[in-house]
C-alpha cells in the first residue's frame, strides 16, 4: 500500500517544540555528548552503486547503524542519551548549579545517579540502550518486555545489569505496564513513544537520533533527493524527517515512511489524517517495528514533513536481508536485522512500481539515503532467515577487501 501525504498540516512549519528538539543547536549538543562516550565512532555510510544501477537511480547510500556504540542499533543513540540528560538535570537540581556532561563521572553526579531508577518497555534495542545508559551513569534500570521478545534479546539487555520483567501480550501492553509500575514506585520512564502529557523524554530520545543525519550529510557527496526510513511508533522516521526539514529547508529530500503491513500504525494514521491505533494481528518478522499505536510527537512531525507513506509485506523484509548479505557483485555486504533494511526494501518496492516511481519522482537523477537501523541483534534469528551467520557476511567483506 502507498499514499502521499494529504494531511491538512502537510508542508506547514514544525511545531516550535519539535523545531527546538530537532534543530541544529540541539543536534550539535548531541554530538558533543557523544564525544564523552568511550565507544563513540561515526557509523559507516555504505554506497551500493550496482543496486542503484539495477533499480534505476543515481545512487543509494545506507547509513549502517549496526556499528553504533557497541549495541548494533540506532537506538543506542536515544535511550542512553536521554538517561544521561535526565541524570544531569537531576544533578543540576540537587547541586543548585548547571552540571555539564563533562562532570558525568564525578562523585557528586554519580551519587545523584545512584538514587535514580529508569524504566522502559522494549522490543529489544531501546531497552539495551536504556540499560547501557543506566550502567554508564551508575543508575538502576528495569526493563519490561512483551511475550514476543526472544530470550536472546532479553539476555542481551540483562547483560547491562538491567532487571527484566516479562509482560503478557504486545509491545503496547508492555508500555502501559511499565508506565503503571514506574508511577507506583516513583521511577523515571524513558520511553521512545509519547502520549498526552508525556512528551519531553521521548523528545530527548528522538533528539539523540539527529546524530545519524548530521553524520550522513557530512559524508554524502551531495544531499539526498529521496529518503526512505522505517517506522515502528515513528520516532526514528520523525527525527530524521524533522531534522532534514530544519537543516535543508526547501531543499529537503522527498521523505517516505515505511511500515510493516502487519503493524502499520503510521500508515493508517496518515490514511485517517490523525493518530490511530491498529488491531493486533499476526506478528511481523520486523520485530523492532511491531507497534500498533503511533507516538503522538512523531505523528505531529510526520504529518507536516513526511511526503509519502507505504507498507511492506513479510517477504519484502526477508528479501532485503538476504540481498544485503549477498549483494550484487561489486557492492559491499551489510548485516541487516529483521527491521534493519526495511527502508531500503521500501525503495526497492517503490522503484519496481511505475505509479509509485512517478508519485515520488524516482528516476536516474535520484540520490537515495536509507538507514540500516539494526544489525543481527538476534544472531540465531538472523542466521535462520538469511542462511548464513552474520560473522560470515562480515568475513566475506574482509576477504573481498583483501
UniProtKB/TrEMBL annotation:
The keyword Lyase applies. One of its GO terms (molecular function) is diaminopropionate ammonia-lyase activity. Coiled coil: none annotated. Its cofactor is pyridoxal 5'-phosphate. Its EC number is 4.3.1.15. Keywords: Lyase, Plasmid, Pyridoxal phosphate. InterPro entries: DiNH2opropionate_NH3_lyase, TrpB-like_PALP, TrpB-like_PALP_sf. It comes from the Bacteria. Residues 40-373 form the Tryptophan synthase beta chain-like PALP domain. This is Diaminopropionate ammonia-lyase.
